[in-house]
Design goal:
Distance between the termini: 60 Å
CATH class of the largest domain: Alpha Beta
CATH superfamily of the largest domain: EIF_2_alpha
CATH topology of the largest domain: Alpha-Beta Plaits
Largest sheet: 4 strands, antiparallel
Number of strands: 4
Helix content: 40-55%
Number of domains: 2
Shape: elongated
Strand order of the largest sheet: 2-3-1-4
Length: about 220
């Protein structure tokens, strides 16, 4: 088919395309509204030499060592998101243990720093912030007993963020509309092709029958 033939099909069957577009967009919007909102709370911590180090030389040496050993910050980050710390935080808040399955806890070390970022995601904005702060408190208590040279300090506590990070209904509707539009175009073109598959093809040439030589019976 040529381009003008495709345009003619779209012009004739535009109502089918619009119907598919509206149906798919409506389904996408409905699916987006059925999803449980996800909220996120963030708390930050810093790994620093302990205040119990009295000598200035020891403090400078500890800072230089900490700068060269980022694995310590990674270790503390893993402690914050460990199961034992999360369970301790849940017990502190007097929450049922099965609620942990609805929340996701992640802790990462920011690049080129000793700052830890603790992120908690879940279906409740208030409980997400409370759980992040409880995990931070439980982690601080646990890390204090590991060693006395480096300690973990809280920089910023988690606060309640009322805006959900998911689902993003604008993106969901836009994606559904694109799928509906492309699906509608493909449907009408395929529908027309199946109804008139050979209209634009030239007829096949007929093969002439071979000539037979006549035999004279008198010879």
């Amino acid at each position: 088919m040529k381009l003008n033939q495709y345009l003619q099909i779209i012009q004739q069957d535009w109502w089918i395309i619009m119907a598919i577009l509206l149906i798919v967009t409506g389904l996408g919007l409905g699916y987006s509204y059925t999803q449980t909102p996800t909220y996120e709370a963030t708390a930050t911590f810093v790994v620093n030499p302990s205040v119990r180090i009295a000598e200035t030389y020891d403090q400078v040496y500890s800072i230089n060592t900490l700068t060269a050993r980022t694995s310590l910050a990674t270790t503390y980050s893993n402690v914050l998101e460990s199961r034992i710390i999360v369970e301790a935080a849940v017990n502190t808040l007097n929450l049922p243990p099965e609620i942990v399955a609805s929340y996701e806890v992640n802790s990462v070390v920011l690049p080129d720093s000793n700052v830890l970022l603790l992120q908690v995601q879940g279906p409740s904005p208030d409980l997400t912030a409370d759980l992040a702060n409880a995990i931070g408190t439980a982690g601080l208590e646990y890390i204090t007993g590991l060693q006395e040279v480096y300690e973990l300090r809280r920089l910023d506590p988690a606060i309640t963020v009322p805006e959900a990070i998911a689902p993003n209904r604008s993106i969901d509707v836009l994606l559904a509309a694109m799928i509906g539009l492309l699906g509608g175009l493909a449907f009408v073109i395929l529908r027309r092709f199946l109804r008139e598959p050979l209209v634009s093809l030239p007829p096949l040439p007929l093969k002439p029958a071979p000539l037979r030589a006549e035999i004279d019976p008198s010879k």
